[in-house]
Structures are given as C-alpha cells and as structure tokens.
Amino acid sequence: MTGPVFLFVLAVLTVVLAPLVGGLLFGLDRKLTARLQGRVGPPLVQPFYDVLKLWHKEKIAVNRLHLVWAWAYLVLVIASLLLLVWQQDLLLLVFTLGFAAIALVMGSFSVRSPYSHFGGQRELMQLLAYEPVLLLTAVAVYFRTGTFLVSGILQQDRPLLFSLPLVFAALVIILTIKMRKSPFDLAACEHAHQELVRGIYTEYSGPYLALIQVAHWYELVLVLALIGLFWAHPWWAGVLLAVAAFFAELVVDNSTARVTWPVMLRLVWASCLTLVLANLAALYLIV
Amino acid sequence: MAPGLGWLVGVPVLWPVLIALLCLLLRPYVARAAVVLVGGGVLIAFSLLVYLQGPFTFTPPAVAGMEWHVLLTVLDFALLLWFLHAALVQRSLLAIVFTLAQLVPLAYWEFALHPQVTVEPAFVVDYLSIVMVLVIGIIGSLIWFYALSYMPRHEEHLHLAQSRQPRFFFYLVLLLAGMNGIVMSNNLLWLYFFWEVTTLCCYQLILHDLTAEARQNATRALWMNLLGGTAFVAAMIYLSSAGRSLAVADLVAKGGALPLVLPLALLCLAGLTKAAQVPFQGWLLGAMVAPTPVSALLHSSTMVKAGVYLILRLAPAYQGTVLSNVLALTGGFAFLVTAILALSQNHSKRVLAYSTVSNLGLIILCAGLNTPLAMAAAVLLLIFHAISKGLLFLCAGAAEQELGTREIEAMAGLAARMPFTATIAFIGMLSMLVPPFGMLAGKWAAMEAVAAAGSGWSLAAIGLLVAGSAVTVVFWAKWMGRLLSQGLPREKVAERVPFFFALPLAVLVVFILALSALVGPVSAGLVLPGVSAAYAPVLGVTAAALILPDGFFPVWVLGLIALVGVILPLAAVRVRPAEARPVYACGEHVAEGERFLSLADSEARLEMGGFYWAEFLSEGKLNFWVNLLGVALILALLGVSLA
Fold first, then answer.
1. Which of A50, A75, B80, B444 is the most exposed place for a label (fewest CB within 10 A)?
2. What whole-number distance in Å separates Cα of residue B134 and Cα of residue B138?
C-alpha cells in the first residue's frame, strides 16, 4: 500500500481534491459569517468564482521576486500537505510549513511598499507566536505515541485527544492565527472586515493573488487535518472534530476584534505554552 | 605513497607556524599572497589526507635528545608571562588575576610536585578530531584567502605609515596551528598549551586596529579566556593530585575509575568561556571590532569551536551525571536568550555574533542531553554551522566594504545592488533555518533527540529549544527581507567582486548545497563515526535520507520541494516591462519612482525600515537578567559537581 505508484496517486488526489474542499470551506465561512452579521452572503462557491476571475485579470507586478515567493508559498504549502498524506515526520511538516510562511514574508519584503512591509512584520510576529506551539504539539504527540511519524500516530487505537486535551486546546488557539481569524488576524484577515489595505497581500493582484488564495485553501485543509489527527479512528470522528474546530473559529472570528501584536504574543505564549507544557508534565508524571 | 603518521600530525600543527613566520618576515604583498595560497593549499591537502588515513595515534619521538614536553613547558610559561605583560600593559586587574591564578599553581604543580605529565600516545586522532581538522583546515584556509583581498582594502581607509598586514597574517595563520593542536592532543597539558595559543591569537587579532574600542574589547576577550584557562589549570591539578592520568582518552574511557565530576565541570567551564556562552558572550560580541576575516575565523571554524569541541570530547565522561543535565540547560538557555537578543540588532555582525552563541548553545544542549542521537545532532550542527557562519561573515565583510557601514538597514535592496554577494548571503541565511539544508537536519535530529530523552530535565530543554527555534527564524527572516526589499525592476548591475572574495564565497556556498544534499553520506562517513566510539549508533543513513526508529528525514524529497518551490519559479517567472507597476501609495503616487504626495502635496520619498523590537527586547533591558541567570547556571554547574 505504500509503493511509489500509490504515493503518486495519493499526491495527485490530494493536489486536486484539497483545494475543492478548502474552497468550499471558505465559501461556507463567508456564508455563515454573513448570516451571523445579518446579511444574505454570497453563494457557497463564491471563492471559486473569485479565484477564476482573478486568474483572468491582467498580470501586473511590482517585480519578479515578489511573484517568485508567491509561487514558493503555494508549492511549500502543498508540500507540507503531501508530507501529511504520505504519513511522514510531523516535525518536518512543521518545518516545511514554516518555510512556506517565510516565503510569504519574503514576498512581502520584496517590494518597497509600506503596507506590504507592515504585513510582513506582523506575519513574522504571528510565526513567532505559533511556531513553538506547533513544534511542541509534535513533541507532545511523540511523548504520547513514541513516534514523530504520522504513519505511527495513525496506528494508535485510542484518540490522542484523550491524553492530550490541553495540547489540543493550544492547537485550536493556534488555528485562529493560521486561519487568519480575529483576534489574531494581524498580517491581513481573510475577510477584509477590519482593514482598507490588505497588509501582506497589498501588492499582489490578479493571477498572483489567486495563487495565494488557493494556497490558503490548501493550508486550511492541512491545519484542519492536523486537528483531525487527534481523533484519527474512526475517520469520521476526526472529520467531526475538525469541523467543530472550524465552526468554533467562525464564532470567535465574529465575536472578537483584532488585538495588537504584543497582546497576541503574550496571550498566545502564556496560554498555549502553559497548556502544552502542563500536558507534557502530566504525561511525564503519570506515565 | 601514504605519508607517515608523524606528517599527518606534524603538518597540520607545525606547517601553519612556518607559514605564519613567513607572513611575518615577507613584507611584499605578492610574496605574502603566494605563501598564504601555497600554505592554505597544503593545509587543505593534509586535512584531506588525515581524513583518508582514518583514526590513528602518534607520539612524537624526541628530537636531538630534547623531549617535546620540555619544549612545551617552556613555551607554556613563556605564554603565561606574555599574558601577564599584556595584562599589565592594558591595566586589566581581571586579566592579571586570572594569569597569576594559572601561573602560580601551574609552576608549583609542575616544579614542586613533579607530576606525571607525559602521556602515551601524545596524539589521538579519531573521527571527531578528523571532523574538526577538516573544518579547521578547509574553512580556515578559505578565510585566509579572503583576507588577501580584504586586508589591502581595509588598510586603504586607515592611511597607515607602514602596513600591519604581516603581523595580522601571522596571528591569523598561527590560530589554525593552535586549533589543530587542540583537536589532536591526547595530553591535557598539551591541549592546554594549544588552548592558550588560541587565546593569544584571538587577543592579538581583536587588538589589531589599535583603536580604543579594540583595546577594550581585546582586553575583555583576554580576561574571559584566561578565566577559562584558570579553570583548565585547576582541572589538571585536581586530576593529577587525585592520581588520575592526564590523557583525554583515559578520562572518557568506559569502565575505568569513577569519573571525577568536578574537574570535568571545570573543563566544561573552560569550554563555555571559549564558546562564548552566556555570561561570557561579551568577548565574542566585542571581537567584531577586528577586521572581518578575524570574525569569520573566530565564529566558524576556530576559537568558539574549540570550546564546543572540548565539551563534546568529554561528553562520554560526564554521561549520566547531573552535570550533563545542567550543561544541557546552560546551552538551551544561551540558545534562546541570545536569539532574543539578536532580534533587536541592526548591526550585521552583532546579529551574526548572537546567532553564533545561540547555535553553539544548541550544540552544547545536545552534548548535555548526551544520547547517541543528540551527539550526532551536535556534530552535524557543528559542521554545517561552521560552513554557513563562515560564509555569512565573509558576505557581511564584502557588503561592509562596499556600503561603508555594517547596518542591516543599509543593506535594503542589496539583492539588486550586489547580486552576487546578496544571493550567496541569502542562501547562507536560508541554510540556517529551512529544510533541506544540513543545519535543519541537525535541528531536526536535536529535536527528535530531546523528545526521546524523556526526562524531567529534557522537558525544560524542549521548551528552550522550540522557543529558540522560532525566534531564530524571525531574526533571520527580518534580515533576509531587508536584502530583498527593492523597488521597480531596474538595469542589471554588474557587481565587481574581488577574486579572493569570490573564490571562498563560491566554494562555501557549493559546500552548503552539496553537503546538504549529501547529508546522508556525510553522516555515515564523518558524523556517526565521530560519536560512535562511546555511543551506540541510532541514526540510520541512506544516500537519500536519515532514518530514525521514530522519525524520517527524506533529504532528496525535501530538496526536490525546495527546487520546485523556489528555484523553478526563480527560473521561470518573468515580469515584462509593460506589466511592471509602482507600489500602492493610496493613489498619491508621483508619476515615476518611489515618491508620493505628502502633506500639502509636497513630494516625499517612500521610505521604510525594519522593526527592531527596541522598546521590548533591547540589550539594555535584557542584559542584566540574561547575565544574572547565566552566572547562576555556571554556579549551578560547579555546585552540582561539588556534591
């Protein structure tokens, strides 16, 4: 079941299906958010219309490097997702996802645009907030399962959630940042509901903005899959868990306002690191 | 014909001495260049020969009836007396105290107590030594070559009556002799001598420009390193008076007498001073007043690496002790806090210096964990850090000579202005933090190791490790972003790169790429043999991947990802002039260039700068607490060893 042909087919399926799922989730997000705000909202498939429209717009750019990093971001996010479906090392997945974030930041710095730079700096703050938590999550999973390999984690019968509830809570907090949701949508929020100029995306337009949008779809699927990993058997329990987390994020997004970056750093580091380390200590003392 | 073992020890240690003397005597530039080039070439060749030979031991026979240890004793005291002289000239009370604290006990011990100071074999070369010899010989020589282009330009600005390059090259070259001596010696007393040779060279090189700042920083480097030397002497006397041998091989041998923890702690303290760990980071930060080749050498292949070498070398001896755990915390602490301190720096060499301390902290964290995997991670990190950091200093020096400043802000858009240097610097920085580069393989192994260590101590180490990693990414990304920050596409700039800048930069960047791709064979051929003497192998290796029972690092797959993700778009994406647009400035753009309409419709240039966290994380705010905790950890290190 793990021959090269199988892995290749799996990769193709992932590359094709993940954006469909991700795009639909984005559509759902917009619809529900609209309803929460008393609007009708766009159709469910609006994100696909948007991306198609962007794709056919005129190609304009500030410079070449700026575009190179947009591609890099997309490829690296897809690669991270592939590392997950190929059941690879969780740490490397986090590192590769980190590389993707760096690519996005490099893109924002490749132009001499104040808004883009703002976004880049803030994206770095966000990275600083979530990266240790993601790494610690991998370590916590190792403490529980004795392996960093996703293949090994999937062999566990008992859901990770039962022994790593605090780690899971920390991961959900991080999900807010990764989904670019309030109160941690500093670099640029997914719906432009708090800003006029979209930070890190300011200088991207047309097809290249579409690229980044599609990369976000992949990224959403990836982080939700990581959430689902906490209840991997039966598979639908994992899906339910991920969907629940997704809806929780929508509620949080619509009921909070953006915080400043020092507040974010303090909140996230204090809450998440405490949660994860407490969980680790408990595992260490009890087991 | 394979050279005799004597040559394999003699050339790496004595050849640089000869080259150094020739550099001192030959004043014309051409003669010096020829000597350095030939000398470096021979040194590289012999480093490779040592590698091809594999592990061996060697004891030099007496020459003309004179025993080597007599000569070394004479030189030892000559060095110490010279340090005393230097300390008096600089009026540094601390340096005087720490010189006397070595001189007096050493004289009493050697002349009144008549200890057994000869050790057979005198030189033991195993794979850890071979790794060091390769790093020292190859990277060190490349930095010599770089200095051939750097120093004439450096002196142009100074308007000296007489060139001081002979003196500069003398110490620059001599430093490698000391380093090779350190990594090959089996006799602690000999190791101590070479240790002090590096202290001497380091002091003289920092002092080189003779400014007030240079004097001050050189003096600080002197007393801090002499503090380490004092700990070294104390350890030797303690061992000897306890009836133990001074052979490093006996110290780390399994199944011997119970380890004496206190002398090991003292030797680790010596290692921590040389590796500029908190609270001794001051000397390394101060060292950047010296010309760039000095920083490149001190940070990459020599000096600080001698510190981690000693700690790694002794690791089997303190395995399973509380000392080992405290050492891990000391390293982890330095890893995190110096990365945080690097965040607020706008000075290229200060960022590099903090990053060095930070990475060495990571290596020491691994040594403290003291598991087979952690040790392998430490050696991997040591190799790749040496290459990347050497490269980055050389790039920083090239940029500095071109820009006339060391400020990172001044490097904005360097990718457009100095494409060759900036591209290589960018790859160098990227190699510190993303897959598939070797440094990341080392970090990956370190994290797997710290998770697998599974003790209460390692829980603390994990926290330091993950937090430090995240901060590391941020301070590098900030700098990398500066390099890229450019406006509209403009005419291609042809960068004039002096030959001896281009050569080492090109070679080192090829090393980074090639060795990262070959991290499997490198691990199998150097890293694992380097730690296998005392540790069971745990890391599986194929050409394409590193394999653990509970982890997998597919080097080539990750390489392919980077290739498709970055190199392919770099080659394929084009922007036609018709597609180019200026950046968004709220619709207030002035037709051409990066200007906008500001207050009262006056034109203003679009300016932007980096963010340096100065209000939150400046050195001024943090240094006191950082150093206080650093001192506390050092005291704890010694305290747990007294028990």
1. A50
2. 6
Give the range of the structural domain holding residue B494, as residue numbers without chain letter: 319-573+609-643
Region B219-247: mean pLDDT is: 94
Same domain, B568 and B624: yes
Decide if A250 is inside a domain: yes
Q: Is A126 on the interface with B (CB under 8 A)?
A: no
Question: In angstroms, rounded to a whole number, what is the distance separating the alpha carbons of residues A77 and B565?
Answer: 10
**pLDDT tens per residue across span A181-199:** 888 888 877 666 666 678 8
Mark whether B403 and B485 lie in a shared domain: yes
User: Which of A138, A165, A166, A164 minimizes the C-alpha distance to A152?
Assistant: A138
- Is the model's pLDDT at B466 over the cut of 90? yes
- My answer on whether B417 and B399 are in the same domain is yes
Tokens representing A189 are: 């929020």
Query: What residues make up the domain containing A140?
Result: 14-286
| pTM (global) more than 0.80 | yes
User: A84 lies in a domain?
Assistant: yes
Question: Which residues 230-269 of chain A have a CB within 8 Å of chain B?
Answer: 262
Beta-carbon neighbour count of residue A151 at 10 Å? 13
How far apart, in Å, do the first and last CA atoms of chain A sit? 34
Task: Dig out the tokens for A183 from the structure.
Answer: 């109160």
On whether both B438 and B480 belong to a single domain, the answer is yes
Instruction: Give the nearest partner residue to A110 out of B469, B486, B551, using CB atoms.
Output: B486
Q: Is residue B33 part of a domain?
A: no
Average pLDDT over residues B24-49: 95
Residue of B nearest to A82 (CA): B561
- B1 band by pLDDT with thresholds 50, 70 and 90: very low
User: Which pLDDT score, from 0 to 100, does residue A17 have?
Assistant: 97
Sign of the Cα pseudo-torsion (B385, B390, B391, B396, in order) = positive
Residue A203 has its nearest CB partner, among B549, B583, B594, at B583
Are B596 and B454 contained in the same domain?
no
The answer to whether B540 and B547 are in contact (CB under 8 A) is yes
What lies within 8 Å, CB to CB, of B613 at 6+ separation is: B343, B344
Judged on CB neighbours under 10 Å (0-12, 13-18, 19+), B191 is: buried
pLDDT in tens, A4-47: 899 999 999 999 999 999 999 999 999 999 998 899 999 999 99
Residues B443 and B590 in one domain: no
Contact A105 B484 (CB under 8 A): no
- The number of distinct structural domains making up chain B is 2
The partner residues of B604 in beta bridges, in order of sequence, read B596
Strand partners, A111: B486
Rg of chain A over all Cα atoms, to the nearest angstrom = 19
What are the angstrom distances between the C-alpha of A34 and each of A29, A191, A227, B459?
8, 11, 25, 45
Q: Dump strand ranges (E) for B427-538.
A: none
Q: What is the residue whose two structure tokens read 């755990």? A: B325
User: Based on the structure, what is the number of domains in chain A?
Assistant: 1
Q: How many residues does chain A have?
A: 287
Beta carbons of A149 and B550 less than 8 Å apart: yes
CB contact A131 to B (< 8 Å) = yes
| CB interface of B with A, residues 30-59, below 8 Å | none
Interface of B with A in 134-153 (CB under 8 A): none
Helix axes B5-25, B165-184, angle to 10 degrees: 160
Which candidate, B215, B221, B151, B143, places its Cα nearest to that of B175? B143
Q: Does B433 reach chain A within 8 Å, measured CB to CB?
A: yes
- Are residue B474 and residue B578 in the same domain, yes or no? no
Evaluate whether residue A130 is within a structural domain.
yes
Q: What kind and span of H or E run contains B127?
A: helix B127-134
What's the pLDDT score for residue B593? 64
Judge whether residue B505 has pLDDT over 90.
yes
- Asked, for residue B521, whether it belongs to a domain, the answer is yes
Q: What is the mean pLDDT of residues B360-388?
A: 96
| Residues of chain A positioned with their CB less than 8 A from the CB of B566 | 68, 72, 75, 103
